[in-house]
Amino acid sequence: MKRNTFIGKTISRLAAAAVSAVMIASSLSFSASAQTFDTKYGTEEIESSSWMGALPDDIKISDMSIPGAHDASTRNVIIGMGHFAQTQYFYINELLEIGVRYFDLRVCCDDNGELYMCHGKVNCYNCADCRMTLGDVFAQMRNFLRDNPSETILLQVKCDRYDNNAQNETWNFLKDMADGGELYYGDHVPTLGEVRGKMYLFSRLDFGETTQKDKFMTFEDGNIFKFRSWGIDVHNFSGGNTEEKTLDETAYGGVHNCVVNTEDMYDVPKAEKWEYVYNSLVGPHNAAYYSDAGKDVGLDTFNIIYASMSYQNWYEVALRVIHPFYNLFSDKEAMVWPKEGADYINPKLRALLEHNPTLYTGCLVCDYIDRSLSQDIYMTNFIDPADCSFGYTGSW
Q: I need a surface site. Which of 29, 98, 175, 223 has the fewest CB within 10 A?
């Protein structure tokens, strides 16, 4: 469904053209920087569109550092709502090309049962200014995996406007994908080799009183029924451990016999948010600590760290909206838009990764992730802790 204001479409197209020019320039500069490195897995050429191809088949996907995009479909939102709702520079296919492999997707449903992308009450649009559907998103992902069969895509799917119809329609959409072999369909945390060319689901769909047994798939092997899951249930998504300001447990056990730890404290002042992110990466109880603790008891551990934030002090919001000059002297600590949060957090992440190039990050999910930050995250998979001198110094 097209937005019908001439001015709106004109502004959007001009903005899209400007961003496209920047992305083309960025792509050209990167094509010259794809390099061959002596990594801990041997001599490999590593490019952002196919970086997983340089990793061995036997690595568990829970043991990998994976760049992620928070509210990944928000490159183009309705004019006037960008401060609130936009969280990315790029569209889905472009995020895939720069190396992002974990996608936070927010879905809602219209009266006709069509699933489309949103961020809260704000709808998302594609580069043609048409409402972006869930089908559009997965079409781009299918095309990418067809062209890059060495890769896998991790999905976190949530209905942002609580609606039972949206929950059920989304589940049925994903079930069809699982039946078609596009989603990993197994009873354990897979190795990368098992999920190359496929997608892996973290479901934040909430079915109220519906039992997990009713929604997870089963198959018949002879006369024995076994449970197999095509998704990990993470609908109880924890913001974090507020005492230690680090990760907290979101899911334990289940069909995949794994632990999922998360940090998603988005509505806090930016200095406090950085404390959560820092502790989750290098504090005493960080992602690597929880990963090792899980292995000690025979569990694979996913660690999902959100570096995104949007601290909403509504008094400040109102003043920013109604007062044309308030931004010049507003309290930047009292209210933080997603872009302001990213401008504060992302440079700190880059500096941390440059000084810790072998750091295990788990799934590190960011606002306004760009090519260099994505590379800094996924390159931690390749650098040998015994030899950090092969030439990678952060941000290629």
A: 223
